[in-house]
Amino acid sequence: MLLEVNNINVYYGAIHALQGISFNVNEGEIVTLIGANGAGKSTTLRTVSGMIRPRSGSVVYKGEDITMTACEKIVVKGISHVPEGRKIFAPLTVRENLEMGAYTRSDRSEIAASMERVFASFPRLKERINQLGGTLSGGEQQMLATGRGLMSRPALLLLDEPSMGLSPLLVQEIFRIIKEINSQGTSILLVEQNASMALSIASRAYVLETGRIVMEGKASDIANDPKVKSAYLGI
Amino acid sequence: MQQAASKTTPPTISHRPPLAWIGQGFLLLLAALAVFVIVKNMIDNPPLFIQMVISGLQLGFVYALIALGYTMVYGIVKLINFAHGDVFMVGAFISFYSVAKFNLHQWPAMVFPGMDGLLVTIIGTTTVILISMVICMALAVTIERVAYKPLRDAPRIAALITAIGVSFFLEFFGALNFVFSPRFIPYQRPFDVVAWYIKDGIYQVQPGQAPPEGAITFSNIVLIIMIASILVQIFLQFLVRKTKIGVAMRATSYDKQAARLMGINVDQVISFTFAIGAAFAALGGVLYAIAYSSIWTQLGILPGLKAFVAAVLGGIGSIPGAFVGALIMGQAEAMTMGYISTPMRDAVAFSILIIVLLVRPTGIFGEPEKEKA
Predict the structure, then answer these.
(1) What's the whole-model pTM score?
(2) Angle B197-B199-B205 (CA atoms, 0-180°, nearest 5)?
């Protein structure tokens, strides 16, 4: 098992944001967490990547407890978090943004090879290589954020709302690339409000509601569940 | 007609206070007066004017070295590090001890007897400066760890007040007899100041002899300060644009959380920023002491504050801004000393701060608060 999250409880002040969440990601899988706004999806990702600490419970990655490991050390271990809202570095060029993604690595030629791989997935970024991150369009920024996340050569990629604010066509494009990244061997934990897209590419899914997991199973089963259909798929 | 016109144009809301024109008129008048005084003197006595410009450059380039530290630290932790001017002072004192007590400026001559005198001076002085830089870097990193880091998530005003506290601590702890000294100390220079004058050619000023009327004089220390400061500026541009740690500094200054997600150790980057700023302040401190030849523990207050004004004038957070702002401050001060009166220099310097804050609070190169999507 690649990632195992055991019964984590997270508080924001007095607010009990995650109430005993457990899930896991196997090697090579795309796992998605779906749920409404404020269900705790982003909080879950932030806990995995070490940005926030759970009050109890544990996060185990490749058999190692990383619950209390510093955010920047978790990156070295092989988890890369593409945060909600992209958070690209606006005053840095596309190239510099990607270089920052590879901050924990030092082999120049291998970093260059990774950058070429990112450009193969996102040719648009190569055209904009010397442009400032802040001048990119929303879709390009998402590509940059995802590409930057891949620059650390993660074994597990955490993606937070990659489709947010994008046109339907771009959403399709992004999801196609996510599948491609996965097929090249990176496991993916995907958080999405666009549940139908997420379920279409994921192998397993968890449904979050106000800080609890209320349903879990194969993505195709979840997609056919009548309750999920009415609540998240709008069918 | 008038009514028709006012109907078609939507009413605009004026945010200007009703009597703003009084203040603006006053500022314009002030600017006109300054330009008049400078231009008139420039025409009346060009050599004197150039002399003023040179002394302004000397001040300005020293301020630039200090202002870089203010602006870089502000860029990354949004803190006005008021202790920065005192790090400058410590730099001057360390070099004083290196020279006066340990004779470190002469070490190459002791290790390699028979070495060329000029080479000894260059290597020895460089050593003295490097020692000051390293000790000040350690001092600044310690200050950051002990005083500012615990307050990083506290409201900004808490860290600001702490910075003022650290500043006072350095000044008055340094003034203890067993630390530095409560008195002014004559500074022993690691090399002699040589001056030249320009009048129908360049001649060296002989000791005890005044240069002739109407000559322009300059000294080796002015040249060293200018060269050092320009080199530092170039080095910093290189650091920030071309090196990994430099790009990480810019990334961290833009978004600390995102920087951590890249695996950037934000604490290390912040320490590094403080260290770099302190190194340049120490360099400035040594050169300042060599130029003005007398030191005491409150030596850093005024240059520090003026460098701070320079950083604000240039646009705090901007490295080229700090440089340009410092040069303007140096000239303003030199012109005041030359054409108005020496005691007025500080008043003019801080008037500039007030005027910048009134007219363009973001400074010359500053951008309005960045928007985050």
Answers:
(1) 0.90
(2) 25
